[in-house]
Specification:
Elements (H helix, E strand, L loop, with lengths): L14 E7 L3 H13 L4 E6 L5 H11 L4 E6 L5 H14 L4 E4 L11 H10 L4 E6 L8 H18 L11 E4 H6 L9 H11 L4 E6 L15 H20 L24 H9 L1 H9 L5 H15 L7 H11 L4 H8 L6 H18 L16 H55 L1
Helix pairs in contact: 1-2, 5-7, 5-8, 11-12, 11-13, 11-15, 12-13, 14-15
Length: 432
């Protein structure tokens, strides 16, 4: 029998598991048995494995060839390439959706039906599994990278996503076919979220469990240096695109041209007034609408803009950047206030001296003491060039210090608010 979608009960909505695997022999069989127990057909993409994977997959497929398929790549090409190969096989078999799961044994296949149910209820949305990063055994390094990635997605799309790196999710195959991603390996899973939201899709999040100690030993192919650098370059590119005043192609809109969330949205001018309303911003701060990382980023971007040699345009620039990066405009403008006297002239002098050092290798120009030089227009041209170069360095340094300091300060305020709320709850409980 052929591996076809008509083996399912819902021909309009048909989901298959796509499981990319590479040298996960110790955990592969248990994951596949869990998928089978969940009653889902599966397509495993062997991404050039050199261990016992081929033998395991041969026996697994022989047990039920009607709902099981193996796609083999001769060479290891990375997770993204393996997933895309699996998606192509799923589309060719007539499936509408693909659920992806890693085969390292960390994720529980028994939770797959919950993700599939969410996708069936909202078939045009991307369903993301999200892990509890407050769990005691959650690795600190992974928590930092995940929150940084989530923040980048927020800046790029304005959408809060809890876990932009979890591989347990359901993709509408039609969406995957029209959203073009350039990133490979693990970065694809983050890029596809941003580009799907740009395309007019929306996301649904489902809580999933994750084990960090796996029986038989977990094999990870994540390379901290290589994959972290790839992720940083990816978000630098996506944020750069976000800053451009160009609309995104809404290729996932419905026949009326409406994307997810468009229906019932307020007119743009009303959204703009609400965005600029300081009272609305204050209410949002009090109610915890903004996370401390986005508050800290807003202030630090304002500080960076304040150092740029664009006097008279700082506020306009801050509002533009805040709008494009979905930040609170008031915090960005407040950060730019460091450009006002008495600190403003100090920053200009520091930028010129830094730029002079970077261009000439010394902090002081002996020619500055020759007053006759100040009558030459070329002198001011040199100073402006040094100001431009130095402002980027001084601005980046000050922005970094602001980011670290304000992140810590906002964390302290958040903890105080949580403690006060807990005390109120305790008092209310005692009174009852």
């Amino acid at each position: 029998m052929e591996f076809m979608a008509d083996t399912l009960d819902h021909p309009a909505f048909s989901c298959v598991v796509v499981a990319p695997t590479y040298n996960n022999g110790p955990t592969l069989r248990a994951v596949l048995e869990g998928v089978g127990a969940a009653g889902l057909p599966a397509c495993v993409v062997d991404d050039g494995s050199t261990d016992q994977t081929a033998g395991i997959l041969e026996g697994w497929r022989a047990e039920d060839p009607a709902t099981r398929r193996v796609v083999t790549q001769a060479q290891n090409r990375g997770k993204a390439a393996a997933m895309l190969r699996g998606f192509a096989a799923a589309r060719g078999a007539g499936y509408s959706h693909a659920l992806t799961i890693d085969t390292d044994g960390q994720l529980d296949p028994a939770e797959a039906p919950a993700l599939v149910a969410a996708a069936r209820d909202q078939p045009r949305r991307l369903v993301l599994g999200h892990r509890d990063d407050a769990a005691a055994d959650y690795p600190g390094r992974s928590r930092f990278g995940r929150r940084l990635s989530n923040l980048a997605v927020l800046l790029e799309t304005g959408r809060h996503v809890r876990d932009s790196q979890c591989g347990f999710r359901v993709y509408p195959l039609g969406l995957v076919s029209v959203v073009r991603c350039r990133a490979g390996r693990y970065a694809y899973e983050t890029e596809v979220i941003t580009r799907s939201l740009w395309a007019g899709a929306d996301v649904v999040e489902v809580l999933v469990t994750c084990r960090y100690e796996v029986a038989g030993g977990r094999v990870s192919h994540y390379r901290l240096g290589r994959d972290s650098l790839q992720g940083l370059l990816l978000h630098a590119r996506l944020i750069g695109r976000t800053l451009m005043p160009l609309p995104h192609a809404r290729v996932w809109a419905d026949g009326l041209g409406l994307a997810e969330g468009d229906a019932g949205a307020r007119p743009m001018w009303r959204r703009g007034l609400h965005w600029l309303n300081p009272f609305a911003a204050w209410r949002g701060l009090r109610r915890g609408k903004y996370r401390r990382e986005e508050l800290a980023v807003g202030l630090s971007i304002g500080v960076f803009v304040a150092n740029l040699p664009i006097y008279g345009l700082h506020t306009v620039s801050c509002l533009y950047v805040a709008g494009r990066l979905h930040l609170n405009p008031h915090l960005v403008v407040i950060g730019s206030s460091v450009a006002t006297p008495p600190l403003g002239p100090v920053l200009i002098a520091a930028a010129i001296m830094t730029g002079h050092f970077m261009l000439h290798g010394r902090w002081h120009d002996p020619g500055w003491s020759d007053w006759s030089q100040w009558s030459k227009p070329a002198t001011y041209g040199h100073l402006f060039l040094e100001w431009c170069v130095g402002s980027l360095v001084v601005g980046a340094l000050m922005a970094l210090l602001t980011l670290v300091g304000s992140y810590s300060a906002f964390g302290w305020l958040t903890r105080r608010r949580l403690i006060a709320a807990a005390r109120l709850r305790d008092q209310g409980g005692g009174g009852a």
